[in-house]
């Protein structure tokens, strides 16, 4: 994502609307129609505004202890009809539970907590993470 890791910052993604436009363009360039958007940690700054603005374009949403969940009101989350799997590790004492407090307002959500895993639960317990993710993906068919 622009501005993260070794990528240079980009003026386009300085606002939530810019981040929505950026993600929209990426999906268009890849030719993706109704993808499942998986959003770990910092990618929440891109995925959450996209979900709220264009969630009907997604087949599903999988937030993994994303940042920026408190930037939006419960009423905004209530309007989203995208099936969602809220995922986090049980040893993620801050972002996991914090994200859940906001994301639980999504009407079509379920929660999966990966046991004995921290913030990067997909790295700590990849088999448990993939089991939860694949179960969710099967339900979307």
TrEMBL record:
The keyword Cytoplasm applies. One of its GO terms (cellular component) is cytoplasm. SUPFAM superfamilies: alpha/beta-Hydrolases (SSF53474). Gene3D superfamilies: alpha/beta hydrolase. It is found in: Cytoplasm. It comes from the Eukaryota. InterPro entries: AB_hydrolase_fold. Keywords: Cytoplasm. This is ABHEA protein. It comes from Spizaetus tyrannus. The lineage of its organism: Eukaryota, Metazoa, Chordata, Craniata, Vertebrata. The gene is Abhd14a.
